[in-house]
Fold this sequence. Notes:
It contains 15 helices and eight strands. The chain is mainly alpha-helical and about 375 residues long. The radius of gyration is 26 Å and the shape is elongated.
Amino acid sequence: MARKKNVIPSYLLHKKSGQARVRLNGREHLLGPYGSEQSRIRYGELVAKFASGVPIAPLAAGSNRGPNRGTDSNDPGPSIAELIVAFLSHAETHYVKNGEPTSEQHCIRSAVRPLRELYGLTPAKDFGPLALKAVRSKLVESGLARNTVNSFVGKIRRLFRFGVANEIVPVEVLSRLESVSPLLAGRTEAPDLPPRTAVAQEKIDAVKEFVSSLVCDVIGLQLLTGARSGELLGLTTSTIDRSGEVWFAKLGNHKCQHKGKSRTLHFGPKAQLILSKYLLADPDKTLFKITRTAYCRSITRACDKAGIDRWTPHWMRHTAATRVREQRGIESTQALLGHSAIDMTEHYSSKMDKLATSTAAACG
């Protein structure tokens, strides 16, 4: 005889945090210390809402939601684990582009993981600068680069900023956390990754020996256009206007789309020769049958096979910028890369020492 389905969600133990939990509509809700009266009350509130078809907020505290959520002086307010659940629920709908989750969702989950492990049961209102520094130390111990650690700490502050904006934690909590300064180069054990620079032509040639012809062609297009790999790999036949001497593609999906900026790729004669091999009868299918992850992985693996330091597709954007600036100046570089500010173009177009040396040898 088939076992009857339990129509009332169970009151369960979340072993990792020691909190009580209940699963409703596929989502876990933390209720407070397992076995406590507080957790039993919240459990009853949630189950009652669930049975009545009332939508349940990620921070499941009923009418007691917010930094002053109850008159009981023994109620410490929402825990950090509860705040994380609420923020991740927000991130799942906010950090989305064209119906797909962005990489920011993954970054946020990675950033809050040590926070939850160390302070999940701590009331959010009691989290302060020293606790944030302890989480930062945990990130440094994991081997992350200094810039990544600073970025993750910024995401943790964003978590508490979300809490303030939604009246989950008092504003004073965020003010205290903003007093923590970022890690400085040379004053921390966190390593600094080498800066992205232009890739020397001999390293590009070395990689081409170990990749497919498709990857070679995408590499060629990046060098000719200065485009990001994702911009090229999203191209379809219909997005490319071939009516003029220079082809162009106005992108509807790009990095700065959410800021209201436009992005157009331009293809000269050399780039057109490459693209012509991939134009399809179906105007809406992508030209290049490879993902960004697979494209990047093919290059890094080829670097290993060639016995050279690893570089990634984005480094070729620096290479393209350097070449164009040498030939046509910074304004042409700015237009090619789609930058709205000259200082960003300066960042992408630093000169290579080898190029300067060879030019001086040939011309000077």
